[in-house]
Q: What sequence folds into this?
C-alpha cells in the first residue's frame, strides 16, 4: 500500500508540476486517512506542506430519500479557499462513481476549483456514472456481490485490502 | 443509534442519547451557515410548512432559514390570512396541509398539547415550536448546543434559570434538557412565578437571586412577559428588575467564566441590564445562530426516518 501511495504522490507532483496550487480533500472516512498520508509523502518529496481538507458527502447522496436507515452525518472541514486550486479528491475504493459525483457537487458548493482530480487506492470497476480516476493505486476486478474493504493502521488494523464475497447490500 | 421518532414534541420524552444525536447533527450543520453558498441538497423535494398561531419572528425565521438551507420548500401559514379565521379546526387545517403532500409541519400554538394532538392524527412529522406554557424543545436544544460549545460539556455544570418559571415553555424544556444531560439546575424567581411542584423536575428552588447566583457557570434569564404585568405577579417592573434583574454587580458572584443566556426578545434594563446584554459573557447571539443549526439537524434527522 505504501508503494502504491508513494507512486500516486509522485504522479500528482508530475502531473501538476509541483504542488504550489494543489489541495488535497479526503472523502470521509477512509479517504481522509489516505489524504493525510499523501500529504506526508508529498511533503517529504517536495519539502512543503499542501493544504488538506475533509469532506462529508452524506448530504449530497443521491439515495438519501430511498435508503433504509440513517447514514451517519459527519463534519465537512475544509479550512482553505478551494477556488482556483487544483483539488485532488482522495477516496479508498472507487466503485459506482456515485460517491465521487456527490463529492464533486459538495466541492462546487464551496467554491470554484481550477481543476478536480481523483485519486483512489482501489478501483474495483462497475461504474454507473462516467467517472474515471486520475491516479489509481491498484485495479482489482470484482464481481458485483463482492465487496472490497480497505483496512488502515489509523483505524487500528494492519494496512491491507481484502475482498469479501456476498456481503449483500452493495455500497 | 439512529433517531427513530416521527415528531419532536418535547424534551420530557426524549432520552439524553436522542438529544445528543440531534446536537451532533446540528454541529455538522454549523459549518453550512458559514459558507458563501449556504445550502446543501439534503432535503431537496421535501416541503416544510410553518404554522404559527402566535406571533413570532425569530423562531419562524429560524425554521424557515434552516429548511431553506437544506433545500426544502417552505410555506408559511399564519392564522390571520388563512381559513382559520373562517372557523376551520386545527386538525382540519393540518389534514389539508397533509393532502398537499407536505412532509414536516412546524407548529406554534397557544394551547399546550396542540403539537401532540396533530402528531397523533397525522402522518406529517410535527415539530413543536412552542405550545402554551408546555415546551419549546428546539430553543432548549439550541441553548444546550451553545453551552456545550462554550463549556465543552454540560455534565456537572451549575445552571441558574431566572424569572417567570410558571409561564415559560423555554424554562420547562431547558429543565428537562439540562437535568437529563447531567447539569445541576437551580430555578430563581418570586414565589408567584414558581409553580409549587417544580422541584419534582429535579431542580432546587430559590427566591433570593443574590444567594442563588453564587458560583453558577450559566445564567439563563427568562423574558419578563410584560403583557402579563396586569396579573399582579409582582408589584412593579422596577421592583422586579431590582430583585431579579441580572446586573454586572450580581454577575460578580457567579463563576468567573459565567455564560449569560437569554431566549429573546430581551427587555433591556428589566430582566437583564444593558451592559450585561452587550458584555463579553453574553452568548445570546450564539444561541440564535445555533438555533438555525439545531433546526437543520432536527429536520434532517426527521426526514431520514424510514
A:
Amino acid at each position: 500500500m505504501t508503494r502504491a501511495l508513494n507512486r500516486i504522490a509522485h504522479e500528482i507532483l508530475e502531473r501538476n508540476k509541483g504542488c504550489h496550487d494543489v489541495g488535497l480533500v479526503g472523502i470521509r472516512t477512509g479517504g481522509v486517512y489516505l489524504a493525510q498520508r499523501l500529504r506526508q509523502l508529498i511533503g517529504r518529496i517536495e519539502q512543503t506542506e499542501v493544504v488538506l481538507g475533509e469532506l462529508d458527502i452524506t448530504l449530497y447522496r443521491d439515495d438519501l430519500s430511498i435508503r433504509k436507515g440513517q447514514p451517519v452525518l459527519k463534519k465537512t472541514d475544509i479550512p482553505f479557499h478551494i477556488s482556483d486550486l487544483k483539488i485532488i479528491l482522495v477516496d479508498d475504493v472507487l466503485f459506482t462513481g456515485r460517491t465521487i459525483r456527490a463529492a464533486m457537487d459538495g466541492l462546487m458548493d464551496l467554491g470554484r476549483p481550477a481543476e478536480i482530480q481523483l485519486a483512489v487506492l482501489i478501483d474495483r470497476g462497475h461504474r454507473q456514472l462516467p467517472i474515471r480516476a486520475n491516479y489509481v493505486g491498484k485495479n482489482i476486478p470484482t464481481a458485483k456481490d463482492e465487496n472490497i474493504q480497505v483496512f488502515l493502521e489509523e483505524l487500528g488494523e494492519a494496512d491491507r485490502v481484502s475482498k469479501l464475497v456476498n456481503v449483500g447490500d452493495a455500497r | 443509534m439512529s433517531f427513530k421518532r416521527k415528531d419532536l414534541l418535547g424534551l420530557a420524552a426524549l432520552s439524553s442519547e436522542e438529544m445528543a444525536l440531534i446536537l451532533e447533527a446540528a454541529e455538522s450543520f454549523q459549518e453550512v451557515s458559514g459558507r458563501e453558498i449556504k445550502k446543501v441538497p439534503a432535503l431537496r423535494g421535501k416541503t416544510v410548512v410553518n404554522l404559527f398561531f402566535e406571533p413570532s419572528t425569530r423562531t419562524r425565521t429560524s425554521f424557515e432559514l434552516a429548511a431553506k438551507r437544506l433545500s426544502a420548500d417552505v410555506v408559511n401559514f399564519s392564522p390571520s390570512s388563512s381559513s382559520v379565521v373562517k372557523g376551520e379546526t386545527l386538525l382540519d387545517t393540518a389534514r389539508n396541509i397533509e393532502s398537499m403532500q407536505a412532509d414536516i409541519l412546524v407548529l406554534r400554538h397557544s394551547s399546550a398539547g396542540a403539537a401532540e394532538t396533530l402528531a397523533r392524527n397525522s402522518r406529517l412529522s410535527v415539530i413543536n415550536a412552542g405550545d402554551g406554557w408546555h415546551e419549546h424543545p428546539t430553543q432548549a436544544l439550541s441553548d444546550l448546543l451553545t453551552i456545550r460549545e462554550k463549556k465543552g460539556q454540560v455534565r456537572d455544570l451549575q445552571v441558574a434559570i431566572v424569572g417567570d418559571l410558571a409561564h415559560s415553555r423555554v424554562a420547562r424544556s431547558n429543565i428537562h434538557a439540562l437535568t437529563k444531560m447531567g447539569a445541576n439546575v437551580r430555578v430563581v424567581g418570586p414565589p408567584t412565578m414558581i409553580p409549587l411542584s417544580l422541584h419534582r423536575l429535579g431542580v432546587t428552588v430559590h427566591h433570593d437571586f443574590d444567594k442563588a447566583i453564587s458560583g453558577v457557570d450559566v445564567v439563563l434569564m427568562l423574558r419578563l412577559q410584560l403583557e402579563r404585568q396586569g396579573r399582579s405577579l409582582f408589584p412593579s417592573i422596577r421592583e422586579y428588575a431590582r430583585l431579579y434583574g441580572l446586573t454586572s454587580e450580581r454577575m460578580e458572584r457567579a463563576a468567573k467564566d459565567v455564560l449569560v443566556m437569554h431566549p429573546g426578545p430581551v427587555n433591556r434594563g428589566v430582566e437583564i441590564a444593558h451592559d450585561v446584554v452587550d458584555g463579553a459573557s453574553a452568548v445570546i447571539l450564539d444561541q440564535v445562530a445555533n438555533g438555525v443549526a439545531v433546526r437543520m439537524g432536527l429536520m434532517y434527522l426527521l426526514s431520514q426516518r424510514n
Q: What stands out?
A: The first helix of chain A runs from residue 2 to 15. Helices of chain A lie at 2-15, 30-46, 98-108. The two ends of chain A are 22 Å apart (CA to CA).
